[in-house]
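Entry:
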Amino acid sequence: MPLWTWAFPAAAAALLGAALALPLGTLLVSACVVALMGAVFAAVHHAEVVAHRVGEPYGTLVLAVAVTVIEVALILSVMVAGGPEKAGLARDTIFAAVMIIVNGVVGVCVLLGALAHREQSFRIEGAGPALAALVTLATLTLVLPNFTTSSASGTFAESQLLFAAVVSFVMWALYVFVQTVRHRDYFLPAVDDVDAHAAPPTNAMAWASFGLLMVSLVGVVGLAKILSPSIETALEVVHAPKAVIGIVIAALVLLPETWAAIRQARADRLQISMNLALGSALASIGLTIPVVAIAAVWLDLPLVLGLAPTEIVLLALSFLVGSITLASGRTTLMQGAVHLVIFAVFVFLAFVP
């Protein structure tokens, strides 16, 4: 195991502890930034080791679920501490994650893959239903609350919230069942993938990598939370809206999956990139909404889920273009560029609403 693959997770964990105990100075912030970036690369390395041991599509599922579980814990901790001011945090985080994944991650993967290989292919039988599930969940949880009448606009009544939680989890669990059991072949890369023939790591190495993956992800999310006040202060200096902080934090949390997806696309394994992207987006809703909903009911926390009209338009445009991208099972440079343009519009409107 290369030195950096365990040194960066250890450094991230140590600096996270130091940041929690000591005041944040310029030196400590700089060290945290370096450790965070190193932990991202370490997380991707260990996720790939685990994936090689357990095989696809289980490997991509490990990274997606691990990141999402820690992200949910981060959201809940901030909501409980922030009170009513953080009522829209879950909505903002989920929306930012979906836009980053569907447009940013998919766009970069398709564009870089096309630059390296001109044209790439994937199994539409797996990507199509995954996008359909994502469109359904996003609409039910982020758009529908604006049109219900049992509670204030943008919110669900308690029974509606619990129903949305059940539907979200069932939809995600069904997707996992289809991906790993019923139609596993729909999510597998090409059979001539040269990496598939490499000797898998031992059980001991796989378990060690799994443990270091958890440490890396805790470090990434924890340091992202620690650095968020500094980021927020920097954004205030440039007079950026407060909503931008959600995009920055979501981007930091999604860095491991993003880098893993880009590596796979560059290696001409776009199928795995699509598994990572769509699976992460589904987990972001399917796991976050149930936990946040139950916590909101149990702890009597205010929860606003409905998006603003501009955000609804961007969400609809993203899904429309995404369905066109996935329609043929083949991608070119143009499709990646279109997704990145939508992502650029999303970021620009966050700064200039």
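The chain has a mean pLDDT of 84.
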